[in-house]
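Encode chain A's predicted structure.
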Amino acid sequence: MISPRYAVPVAVMLALALVPTVIHSYRGVRVNDDRRTAAIAATLDGMASTPTARRAPWVKNHFESDDWIERTYTRDRTSVTLFVARSYDAKRLYHHPELALLRGAETTPRGTAYVAARPDVPLHLIEIEQDGRRGLAVYALHYDGRFIDNPVLFQLRASASLLVSGRRPLTLFMATDLEGRRDALDKSPAARVLLEAIGSFERQLVTAAAH
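Encoded structure for chain A:
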């Protein structure tokens, strides 16, 4: 039996413990930022695009996402595949997305890098080997107006904020170039397409505000 003098502190603690339960289990609160992957420009870095054959059930199963695109951007002999997806299940997107998207290829993580054009965007680099060709995949992770360099630290910070707030979508941008180029990163087709896609995605709110 609890002493009466502890009744109020215990009640407060129990109430606080119920907050995340109510937010995520009963109400399922989600924060919508009104951005959509479909708004990303069909032409990036002077390269026109066509949709790939990837299907919605596959993306839903692997990334728990209903908002996504995958396009191949092409110019002359240059071809870059861009995949962008948003999900409220962040771990589905940040935990080695290349294992699903580049299945069948040998992939080797090469850490993170930055380019002068967007020093605020950590670029996660993946070396690819497939059918005797060596290529490059570059991806970036965006959450609540910021880009993520360390997914583990991000998850710890996000877990704390989720105690009192609804879930926000994480956005994965990944560009893949299988042509085996060895350009400097800021000149590589994959990085250029990726950064232009990010810029196109970000401009949605600017356009909305202007109207």
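Residues 31-210 form one domain.
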